[in-house]
Amino acid sequence: MTAEIDRAMGFAPDYDSPIPYMQRTREYYRAIGYDPYRWAHYRDVPFSPLRKPLAESRLTLITTAAPFDPDKGDQGPGAAYNSAAKFYQVYSGRMDEEHDLRISHIAYDRKHSPATDARAWFPLHALRDAAAAGRIGELTTHFLGAPTNRSHRHTVEVDCPEILSRCLQDGAEVAVLVPNCPVCHQTVSLTARYLEQHGIPTVVMGCAKDIVEHCGVPRFLFSDFPLGNAAGRPHEPDSQAATLELALRLLETAAGPRSTLQSPQRWDETGEWKLDYLNLEQIGAEELARRKEEFLRQKAIAKGLREQAA
Q1: Residue 108: exposed, middle, or buried by beta-carbon count in 10 A (0-12, 13-18, 19+)?
Q2: What superkingdom does the record give (predicted)?
Q3: Who contacts 2 (Cβ-Cβ below 8 Å, separation ≥6)?
Q4: pLDDT for 169
């Protein structure tokens, strides 16, 4: 009877809703023997309005993607999580140069994201096109890489001040932030809040709606896509341009903090991909045991790298 009513009313399946990343992450880590993660959560959200039109503004890009290093193992499409490829300090790259940025160091959706088009997670080319068309005034000399730290304190007290300092040095007046994995979404949300507190308007382009809204940001463009595609569908320039345009439009039109705009684009017709990510119902006990062992191994690698970077 319920199925008949759904068909008659044209209802979508219940699973075809934004993935509850916080819930699934908590349950997943509990299943492999770790305490649930405490996600950042604020009631109050800072908000800085644009000081002048975007067509006259200097814009910077903040990413959580990592520069490719051939000495750090497999970082290509479909590569397993690679903690050796992580970075632990803010980095800069020139906007007028080409860059090979990868996302193998984070927990993006490896089953449904092909990871063969960096423009799906690093919208530098779309931003260049927007600047050339006069949609934005100009780009800063550098884009910035924001480390993905599980430590809220380290992000807020170490990384955010460094990112702000580099933004100010580059004369950034507006910032676009693009995360990939669940913790990346928290990292850029904390960063956006910090920049707004210091007068730089921001917009987050992301795919983990619950994490960003739970933290609380001024402006959020939500794309209901698998993690790793926050800047548009891979190999589809029109999708990428349209996604950026929505983010720029939100920068211009948001009336206050906690302004979320959802992209009308869909990943596919069924939405069944949403059933898979860290869903315990789709993972057996044997696979969970294997993942726990791999998690411990990667955690040890990451600890050594953090100590080297300190």
Answers
A1: buried
A2: Bacteria
A3: none
A4: 98
Residue with tokens 């990939």: 180
Question: Residue 101: which of 72, 136, 137, 75 has the closest Cα?
Answer: 75
State whether residue 148 is helix, strand or coil.
Answer: coil
pLDDT at position 4:
80
Contact 65, 145 (CB under 8 A): yes
Contact 186, 39 (CB under 8 A): yes
Tokens representing 254 are: 């948001």
Task: Give me the phi and psi of 128, to 5 degrees please.
Answer: -60, -45
118 in a structural domain: yes
Mean pLDDT of residues grouped by 10 in the chain (310 residues)?
Answer: 77 93 90 85 98 98 97 92 91 98 94 97 98 98 95 96 98 98 97 98 98 98 98 98 98 98 97 94 81 71 66
The verdict on residue 247 lying in a domain is yes
Class of residue 260 by CB neighbours under 10 A (exposed 0-12, middle 13-18, buried 19+)? middle
Query: Buried b vs exposed e over 270-305: b needs ≥16 C-beta within 10 Å?
Result: eeebbeebbeeeebeeeeeeebeeebeebeeebeeb
Residues 71-96 as b or e (16 or more Cβ within 10 Å = b): ebeebeeebebbbbbbbbebbbbebe
- Two tokens, residue 171: 């004369």
Q: How far is CA 130 from CA 95, 114, 126, 127, 161, in A?
A: 13, 26, 6, 5, 28
245 found inside a domain? yes
Please give the pLDDT value at position 73: 93
| Predicted pLDDT of residue 290 | 83
Structural domain that includes position 245: 54-96+109-262
Strand partners of residue 177? 62, 204
Please provide the size of the chain in residues.
310
- Quick one: tokens of 99? 């860059």
d(CA 24, CA 105): 20
Number of domains composing the chain? 1
pLDDT at 293: 77
Is residue 260 within 8 A of residue 217, CB to CB? The reply is no
Please check whether residue 135 is in contact with residue 28, taking contact to mean a CB–CB distance below 8 angstroms: no
Residue type, 274: K
